[in-house]
Please model this.
Amino acid sequence: MLHRPTGPKGRLIVALDTPRLDQAEALAGQVAPSAGLVKLGLELFCAAGPPALARLAAHAPVFLDLKLHDIPNTVAGAVGSLAPLGASMLTLHAGGGPAMITAARKAAEAAGPARPILLAVTVLTSMDAEQLGAVGVAGGPAQQVLRLARMAMAAGADGLVCSPREVSLIRDALGEAPMLVVPGIRPVGSAAGDQARIATPEDAVAAGADWIVVGRPITEAASPAAAAAAITASLGR
Ligand SMILES: O=c1ccn([C@@H]2O[C@H](COP(=O)(O)O)[C@@H](O)[C@H]2O)c(=O)[nH]1
Model:
């Protein structure tokens, strides 16, 4: 089981969002010297399936970001199927509720000590107050993130996915216990694209992020290797 970032590759997770496994492997090879993990998400997993995990794991530990969200029995079954694949981290939506998260934790523990860390996704970083309001959540992202963060940790999550805007709020409320994995990262000058709640790598880590997740600012750069190296260097290790 992977814990806090300690190695020379720092706190960077590179999101390999492509449907092509050959491209993802090439990118993984380029960024691996500067990345603690690579992220295998829905796009690639839907296209290439479980074999993608072993292929990427040859380059770096893998964060399997499938954001599971279903009834407890179904999520527990999915975690049971995924846990032996060897991912270091696995996501599920906090919005699935405490029973779903507890069932996922039990299923992960049944896989033994090498189980993946379970991260609960609070409010997607693409959502602003207006988007949240449209799904019936009033009060804005910060309030909802904190509500879900407390619930998810009490239900058995090992950590949380949140935007950089909520990191210090969660640290103030829950301390150092939750591993915080933070997408919505944009180096100065990068396009936000569909991300709504963003900050720079430096600001996210200064606020208390354990890991930052960066996709397009690296994968669409002229040199992904150089872009990843620059981010890791900017964080001081
Ligand atoms: O709230 C969330 C949860 C997950 N993600 C994932 O992170 C990366 C971000 O990619 P960028 O290209 O840097 O925007 C992507 O794979 C998402 O699925 C997130 O952005 N927000």
The mean pLDDT is 96. Strands lie at 12-15, 37-41, 62-68, 89-93, 117-121, 159-161, 179-182, 211-214.
